[in-house]
């Protein structure tokens, strides 16, 4: 029996295109991937736009417009497995900072014709709208994790995507701790693995672009950051970054805001 | 047939979400609109209140294909506001990083987004069936560009090593050596790809549109990434701080991106503009190659932009190799950044993104927080020029059958390597009263 190639769709919502670009950045593997799967829908790369159903949907971006809130339902119903790619799709992205502002009033204030712009008050992750089967974290996602996911799906197995912390990766890499040695604020202890402890390798603290690890202790992290000099609104901003709409990071920022009282 | 419509609901092989509607009545164009429905993401709005030191990382997220451009223009603007000057070695390293992005972005566009149009292929994967050596060679060249960004920036997309005042860490000698090997291996493969594009059949289109680019002058002038005043082919010459008095944007219903005018005129930025104003700064071997492949300056046919991107990609690769050769151990052991003291101020930053000039402006308070932000990306500047090209092509399109006309119209849009995610992000910032 000849096995049919899985049909792949790549879908964009509000995003920078960087996560889907990661697939095109697999320069050594791209042509092999294109042989192994049927690329049925991937507008950034091809004019071929086949309607579903799809075996696998890779979804980039967050939901920010009424039209996109409907479109994600169509993508879900046309797809057997739905995978979210990156910080926008998994945690609302940096554009979720709008969630703490009054977007409606803002639009009315600054536009002569706010009716030209169709937008929702919030930027929400995909799983706030439809069930998600698998997720890849990061802003952007890691190329190695993307290839692992594709290979796993081709072999009908679960992908190996560790959920430990960047801090653990740093120890494995033999990096000198940037907080201990340089006093840099670092979210590594609470941040999800996947980047290979990139920032500390460049003498910089982790800024949490993969979102929370499994079972993070956010208040303890805030205490460490505060002790090394990150306080006040800078401490809140540390949690309100590229994965700000994640419940753990958002909850900690809200707690700090409420505790601070100002 | 007196009525006809070309409708592309979702433009493929561009970055972001756009559509084209073109309608003829009685053989004349009745309606032409490039619409951008990419959702706005409100960057300038939520930048307010953030530390200006965060702007390189945050604005990088406007575009996954040209994050370095955002980091460079953001740094330039904030350093201007804070009154910082970078020493020469750090400026050279920023130029090196930018070389990587030009290679990566240009080669992606040449081989994967634009070349398929010249063969009627749906994508580069299909093109690779008949032109495997070229597509694989392009992928190797693109990978080498990405290797520059990874080495110096930490990763290809949204690099983490750039900061206001310089870098977090300087490269190590062994990283520099490994990169040099990769670039040397990719160089002939890239030249092969560029010569291949010289064999493409080019549709005819002659446009007379003002070009605007950074354009350094005098002794020591180099092909611009971050250098020089802004100049145009119609006599403009001004610095970054004068940008807002020359470039004005307006909001129209069909588009979530604003339209820009240069002193009231439609104009163009990008490779053709840079090349028209700076071709004399290219080394003789690249000038000779340009003439050989059909890109004798100035290039007025937008379809030939693919050739100029190739010349620029080769220039960026050669320039990267030249810079790598200057990185002696004293440079690599030097300071990675200058001291940054935040202060209240206003700063303007310009750099040449692969698609053209990218302008940033920030106003900061005493603590260095952003009070006001303004970003003008290249694709918003080119939007009216793209539409003007389509008007100029309308008679040719009318003569083609529907599939061919649609493909040709899309190809004309892709001449600009439009980055729609970039074009859209800045909607919220412009204040239109009344």
Compact summary:
The complex is a heterodimer of chains A (262) and B (434). Chain A has 262 residues and is of the alpha/beta class.
Write the layout of secondary structure elements.
The complex is a heterodimer of chains A (262) and B (434).
Chain A: E1 7-12, H1 18-24, H2 30-36, E2 38-41, E3 54-60, H3 66-77, E4 79-85, H4 86-91, H5 103-110, E5 134-136, H6 143-154, H7 166-173, H8 178-182, H9 198-201, H10 218-227, H11 232-239, H12 247-260
Parallel strand pairs in A: 1-2, 1-3, 3-4, 4-5
Chain B: E1 3-8, E2 18-25, E3 28-36, H1 43-47, H2 55-60, H3 67-82, H4 88-119, H5 124-130, H6 132-153, E4 162-163, E5 166-167, H7 173-197, E6 212-214, E7 230-232, E8 237-238, H8 243-246, E9 247-250, E10 259-262, H9 271-278, H10 284-293, H11 305-326, H12 329-332, E11 345-353, E12 356-364, E13 370-376, H13 378-399, H14 402-414, H15 420-424
Antiparallel strand pairs in B: 1-2, 2-3, 4-5, 6-7, 7-8, 9-10, 11-12, 12-13
Helix pairs in contact in B: 3-4, 4-5, 4-6, 4-11, 4-14, 5-6, 6-7, 7-11, 10-11, 13-14
Overall description:
The complex is a heterodimer of chains A (262) and B (434). With 262 residues, chain A is α/β, with parallel strands linked by helices. Chain A has two domains: 148 residues, Rossmann fold (3-Layer(aba) Sandwich); 95 residues, no CATH class. In chain A, 39% of the residues lie in helices and 10% in strands. Chain A is built from twelve helices and five strands. In chain A, strands 2-1-3-4-5 form a five-stranded parallel sheet, with helices on both faces. In chain A, helix 11 packs antiparallel against helix 12. Chain A starts with 6 loop residues before the first strand and ends with a helix. Chain B has a single domain, classed as Cytochrome-c3 Hydrogenase, chain B (Orthogonal Bundle). In chain B, strand 4 and strand 5 form a beta hairpin. Chain B has a three-stranded antiparallel sheet, covered by helices on one side. Chain B is α+β, with helices and mostly antiparallel strands and 434 residues long. The C terminus of chain B is likely disordered. In chain B, helix 5 crosses helix 6 and helix 7 runs antiparallel to helix 11. The interface between A and B is large, with 62 and 69 residues.
